[in-house]
User: Fold this.
Amino acid sequence: MKPVVEVENLSKLYRLGAIGASSLRETVERIFGKKKQVAPAQFTKDKPIADDRRGPEPNSFWALKDVCFSIQPGEVVGILGRNGAGKSTLLKILSRITEPTSGRATLRGRVVSLLEVGTGFHPELTGRENIFLNGAIMGMKRAEIAAKFDEIVEFAEVGKFLDTPVKRYSSGMYVRLAFAVAAHLEPEILLIDEVLAVGDAGFQKKCLGKMDEVATKHGRTVFFVSHNMGAVRSLCEHAILFEGGRLVMTGNPGDVISRYLSATSPQDSDVEGQIIWNGKDAPTSHDLKLRSIRLLNGLGVPQTTFESDKPITVEVEYEVLERIRGARFCLLLLTQEGEVAFSATDHMFQQETQNPGVYKTACLLPGGLLNRRQYIVHLQCDIPGERYVLPAAEYLSFTVSGIGNQSSTFPEPWPGVVCPRVSWKVEELKS
Amino acid sequence: MAEVATTPPPNFEIVIQPSRGWLNIPWAEIWEYRDLLHVLVQRDFISRYKQTILGPLWHLLQPVITAAVFVVVFGGIAGIPTDGIPKLLFYLCGLLGWSYFSQNITNGGATFINNAHLFGKVYFPRLIVPISVIVSNLIAFALQLIPFVICLIFYKFFTHQGGGIAFTWRLLLAPLPLLHVAVLSFGVSLWMSASTAKYRDLIHLNQYIIQIWMFATPIFYPLSQVSKKLTWAIWANPLSVPIESFRICLLGHGTLGVSEIVISVATSILLTATGLIAFQRVERTVVDSV
Assistant:
């Protein structure tokens, strides 16, 4: 069978100086040879460009370089990589939003890209009108939308508000409607970028189910970019890992996820066990922005290896940019294989409303709880039943080691995602 | 549920690679996306009037108000004669083509800037957007005809000023200048979209171009009033011919030679063809820079 997607030596060069439309004056000066020498930019967003990503001209860099792979029909492929590794650029090229600089990609089938939910929704139009508008923008025929209309409405659970302008919708309803349209597209190739990160948990589950159905029942090919290792693990049969614009690994999701997580920490902090954002890179939404995440030992020092019997504090510093109601942080500890060890939330400890300002929330994990293995810290901020403030993403990983199991003097590996210290009572029974 | 046929032909293939060549308009694909054209036109129309009390009535009022101002300023204060045609009617006729043209280039000329977000998130043939502007303004044009026709009937049959108005077989040719305005404004808006996406400075320039263009077009003055020395300037403006043609077709009054028509039509086609090239060059990687 011919592969449904074939990518050969795909590369994309971005010019740094030219981001943002150039001014007429610059061009005129260039034409008349009066252009001043601009110091070559070697930094993107305050980070130096790695040598192997520098482009042929001083102000350019390769967002994607010589990428090759092919995908068989019906596969669900997870695309992993740090921010700036080239995942989004790949999706943009495959969805024909921008052109590659060189190389070629062949797609055998209709493509729909879901880089955002509700693209093109018009606030003044009603839910009904927006279903048709959004569907058409995504490339559906009017007849197709009409045929699926009832299904879409039912999926979105907005029946009563169908003839209300969407500007009056709650953000939850808006997202549900938008995703419902997207979920009912029937392309041969579906490209999805983190869109599952919105909406409440129940709806998210429904969407994941729908995606799974699309792939298995209808034999469609799905590309899925996500920082949510759990979703990648449960949905994908294949995963592709990007680092610095290059494809570094393809394989089954478990292996690729381990490789991805064992790679160097995302932000090159001086100290391990913490991420401090000071630039534009910080995970942010319109109302909340992360400042730092730290893994602290009992002395308040960040580190990445902890004794199994010592407590660990996960400390999150964030800035509220706009008054926010009912927000909470959720912490998920995942194993390297992507299983959820457990989850916890600060909901009961949070204030109902938070005014703009800087806050800190810290989760104290007692000693004698975790197993001797590696864990990934997954964090999200949401307003339950309404929306995600910051989508779930994995940020840090740490290792628990030390003196064996809670109840054993031998340091042998012990099965289980956690290994809580439990008490035993051993007694000799008189016979 | 009835399955709608969505399966493409078995050898359906999309090849993505750096594009070459000057002009390869995906006409077939644009046709495939005709339903999008439909909803975009619908969206423009609905969203423009959703929050207004008068709704589409604005289309009826706008030309009447503008023409009334012209009656006072150009007819009254400046005293520019209108070749024996009632002033209000003369201005309304000139404004028919002009409003259609200016709305097309105002909305269509900012295609990339107004749709930067959309273009960055989803693919569809970008030309659909300027085409949808031309089509949706056609609705406005049709509505604008209403006050004109009412005025025409009123002056022709109920007043003694209607002498200059002649209904001839040329009335049937009225769609031709409309098509001419559509093609010309399409070409201009393609050029404006492409140039403003590349150079933001030009947004401000374009506003002036529209203002100056109005004065250079025989909207509120007849060609008979233009001095011989300046006639060339009027004819250098490709919009003059369709505006004057409207007057000939609808009011049976005007001056137009064959050579002027040929030059103007050729200019419009040339502008559109080169506009398509410019638009395509920008379209390929515009999302990288907007």
